[in-house]
């Protein structure tokens, strides 16, 4: 790589980081699963709701912040990283990194340890994407630009600010792909690549189980290659590498067996895979997610360009330049997309974020290679650059933002933080999504989680006895209850006058009564 290209790539990486930091500053809230990430990496149990004193008692913000942030008493204690994952549904590697990052914000919850961790991971994602695309495009500049732009699409920016394991899973997939392309080039001449592949497979399996849906077809493709070549030595060594990675993974975290085959999430995935009635619905839903977030609403335009270029190519009777790497990108990516689309419990962008950059690269490769046969390399580079610029600018007219930025919650966060009124959460235990709201409760000085409360005036008076409600109260009511009846009881019991609706959150409504 030429010195000027190295400088250009460093500049592009700096721009990438700046954009990701700016997006991080605009994140206003956390999703329930982000709350789980923080708690599972740090707390002494999976659910804060399992504390005996959680319900029907007054707490300050520190009580909830204890779940979200490392406290002085937790310094050096990494046991929750392993123990909580054993009792949850995911392997532990990401939580180990997150727990380390959280150590830089002791006694205070901040989103930044998780976001900065993801930004650092994304630097390596972009570097290895470049190394992949350099082989694919055979053009340093295009490889650099496409790799960086793929890291700042709405899908990637969502991945960066979503405090979950998907950024690390993305890195595992990109690294695995790069190492396999190196193996394809080296064959049996550089066997040192095999241990690296084994380590990447180990890391991938200890980060997210969906990684295996990518690794499995890649393994089959290489085995087919070695069998066709009658290269039994490499077939044996490659298989041994995967077996060693699998055994090591199970030795480190044997609870994977329980998660995959006996846990509720594993059982749900297996059930979905055998239910073809949801196949079409999920595939279409995930295709729209790709259209909306991986290509910032421009995928149909890109497909139209590809179609036109194919027609021109056909008319001119031009042949596509063969690329031996392409199938290794397309087939595992396609298999992962289809299986995850069906197996995932919900149609959520997060489940396919680890392959969005590969999809992005494949689409732009087809445009580039089609342009190459029709025009010069210079024209092809200019056209690709214009299209990539369109991807960057598309969020402006479409008013797009990363899926977990939650800018619509900025006002409620500021209201809760600045007014800080005594707060009651009328909690329906049949709809337990408290972690969707834990961030707001970490901001409050006084809050009370009333579990399945018999909401009578007498009970309300007892709860708020000796509380200063001269400025009013906040009321959270989660689903499955009659909001109007509950609010009327609160208003009458506390001699308050006005009920103001503030915000609909994921599973509850928020009111102010004063």
- Counted beta strands: 6
Secondary-structure element series: HHEHHHHHHHHHHHHHHHHHHHEHEHEHEE
Structural class: mainly alpha
Helix percent band: 55-70%
Strand order of the largest sheet: 1-3-2-4-6-5
Report on this structure:
This protein is mainly alpha-helical and 514 residues long. It has helices at 3-25, 32-40, 61-68, 79-86, 93-102, 112-137, 140-150, 154-161, 166-186, 193-205, 211-229, 232-252, 256-261, 264-273, 279-294, 299-315, 326-343, 353-374, 377-393, 395-398, 410-419, 438-441, 457-463, 483-493, and strands at 58-59, 423-427, 447-451, 473-478, 499-504, 508-513. The protein has three domains: 31-110, no CATH class; 177-398, no CATH class; 407-513. α9 (166-186) packs parallel to α11 (211-229). The model has no long low-confidence stretch (mean pLDDT 93).
Q: Could you give a quick summary of the protein structure above?
A:
With 514 residues, the protein is mainly alpha-helical. Helix content is 62%, strand content 6%.
Comma- or semicolon-separated keywords:
mainly alpha; 3 domains; 514 residues; globular; single chain; 6-stranded mixed beta sheet; 24 helices
Question: Topology of this structure?
Answer:
Layout: H1 3-25, H2 32-40, E1 58-59, H3 61-68, H4 79-86, H5 93-102, H6 112-137, H7 140-150, H8 154-161, H9 166-186, H10 193-205, H11 211-229, H12 232-252, H13 256-261, H14 264-273, H15 279-294, H16 299-315, H17 326-343, H18 353-374, H19 377-393, H20 395-398, H21 410-419, E2 423-427, H22 438-441, E3 447-451, H23 457-463, E4 473-478, H24 483-493, E5 499-504, E6 508-513
Parallel strand pairs: 2-3, 2-4
Antiparallel strand pairs: 1-3, 4-6, 5-6
């Amino acid at each position: 790589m030429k010195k000027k290209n190295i400088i250009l790539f460093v500049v592009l990486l700096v721009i990438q980081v700046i954009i990701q930091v700016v997006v991080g500053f605009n994140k206003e809230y956390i999703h329930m699963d982000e709350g789980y990430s923080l708690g599972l990496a740090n707390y002494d149990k999976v659910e804060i709701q399992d504390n005996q004193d959680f319900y029907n008692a007054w707490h300050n913000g520190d009580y909830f912040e204890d779940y979200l942030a490392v406290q002085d008493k937790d310094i050096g204690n990494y046991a929750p990283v392993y123990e909580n994952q054993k009792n949850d549904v995911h392997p532990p590697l990401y939580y180990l990194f997150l727990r380390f990052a959280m150590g830089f914000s002791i006694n205070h919850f901040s989103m930044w340890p998780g976001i900065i961790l993801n930004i650092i991971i994304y630097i390596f994602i972009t570097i290895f994407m470049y190394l992949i695309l350099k082989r694919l495009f055979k053009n340093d500049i295009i490889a650099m630009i496409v790799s960086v732009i793929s890291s700042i699409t709405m899908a990637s920016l969502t991945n960066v600010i979503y405090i979950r394991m998907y950024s690390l899973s993305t890195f595992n997939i990109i690294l695995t792909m790069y190492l396999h392309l190196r193996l394809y080039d080296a064959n049996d001449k550089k066997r040192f690549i095999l241990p690296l592949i084994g380590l990447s497979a180990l890391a991938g399996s200890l980060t997210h189980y969906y990684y295996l849906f990518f690794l499995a077809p890649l393994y089959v493709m290489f085995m087919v290659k070695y069998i066709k070549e009658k290269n039994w030595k490499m077939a044996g060594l490659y298989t041994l590498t995967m077996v060693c990675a699998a055994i090591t993974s199970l030795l480190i975290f044997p609870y994977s067996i329980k998660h995959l085959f006996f846990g509720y999430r594993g059982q749900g995935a297996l059930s979905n895979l055998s239910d073809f009635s949801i196949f079409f619905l999920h595939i279409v839903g995930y295709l729209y997610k790709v259209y909306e977030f991986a290509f910032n609403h421009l995928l149909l335009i890109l497909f139209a360009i590809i179609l036109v270029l194919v027609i021109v190519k056909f008319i001119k009777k031009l042949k596509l330049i063969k690329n031996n790497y392409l199938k290794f990108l397309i087939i595992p990516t396609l298999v992962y997309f289809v299986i995850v689309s069906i197996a995932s419990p919900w149609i959520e962008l997060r489940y396919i974020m680890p392959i969005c950059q590969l999809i992005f690269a494949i689409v732009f490769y087809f445009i580039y290679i089609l342009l190459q046969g029709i025009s010069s390399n210079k024209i092809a580079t200019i056209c690709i650059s214009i299209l990539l610029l369109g991807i960057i600018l598309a969020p402006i007219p479409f008013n797009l933002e990363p899926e977990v930025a939650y800018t619509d919650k900025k006002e409620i966060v500021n209201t809760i933080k600045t007014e800080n009124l005594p707060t009651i959460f009328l909690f329906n235990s049949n709809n337990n999504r408290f972690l969707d709201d834990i961030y707001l409760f970490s901001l409050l000085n006084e809050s009370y989680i009333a579990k399945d409360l018999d909401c009578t005036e007498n009970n309300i008076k007892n709860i708020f006895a000796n509380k200063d409600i001269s400025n009013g109260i906040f009321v959270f009511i989660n689903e499955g209850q009659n909001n109007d009846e509950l609010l009327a009881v609160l208003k009458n019991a506390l001699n308050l006058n006005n009920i103001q609706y503030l915000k609909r959150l994921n599973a509850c409504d928020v009111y102010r009564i004063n």
